[in-house]
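Reopening this one. Same input as before:
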Amino acid sequence: MAFLNVIFWLCRMVSAREKLSKCAMWEVDRRVLNELKDTGFDHLYELSKYVGRCHHDNRMIQTLIDNYDMDHCVFRVNGRDMLLGLEDVAYLTGLNIDGKLVVSSKEKINALGAVPSVMKKNGCAVRMSWLKDTFEKVPEGVGDSELEKYVSAFALDIVGTVILPTSDHVYVSLQYLDCLSKDKIKENAWGVAMLAHIHHCLKQYKINKMAAIGAHMHLLMVWALEHFPKFARELLSDDIVVPLEFPLSCSWAQLISKVLQKKYEIKKKNYQQHLVNLGNDDSDNKVPFLYPKLCILNFLYLQNFLFYTLSFVFLNFLFL
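Same output, byte for byte:
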């Protein structure tokens, strides 16, 4: 496996190992979706429905990674330090970025009931396929306390698929169930956790010369489309109608999926050239589409970096 990683690294084409299509396979009960309304989890499920299996332009992602400074968690582009930060996560996903820190805990590890030993790993992780098989269909007439199990199970699947996926995309830690209880899911800053995980995976990819990244790379791609207008024109068309509906990831996904399903090919050097020209061509690259985000290291970066540092605490509790 290490040998294959080196070969992939030398070829310099990242594989975004993201399984949004697995989340889309759930036929989620309306009662479960109602409980998850306005948590951001409902938007991620909607995103999976739009995206399906075709959800990445790996050439674009590789270009961004080539310009990623893992020491400062920024993308260094033509003399500028550009940040993928909390504001971006809020606009793009709808996840909460202002709340309690997401940390794993064994307090409610048995909240879903008994888990078959064959479905568990290291005593605290469960196969996501078991979650779907066991909790996808909600019986009629279940009470609120019983319904919470189904809500938590589906939310846990989203955590393992999109927010905090592991490299194998098979298991998810049961220790997040405490943060997914009915009274806590809206209180926790899941957007902070997602962002910390993305930066952690980008760093690990560059340090370990890995073949794939197990994080929500669709977010990174949409962030680039928002901030580099020429990227969007290169991928889509010159007369693109910019999405404005919140959350932006879902709006962009409807455009992106149609293009990528047709195996649209784009040369990596074109993306890199757009970054090289950033700021030199005022008519195209200076102003992002919706919300201004060309920023050098400043108080906003320091504020976000504090969140990153605190958020990395949750990584120490992963036993996968």
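So the earlier flakiness isn't reproducible anymore. For the record, The two ends are 18 Å apart (CA to CA).
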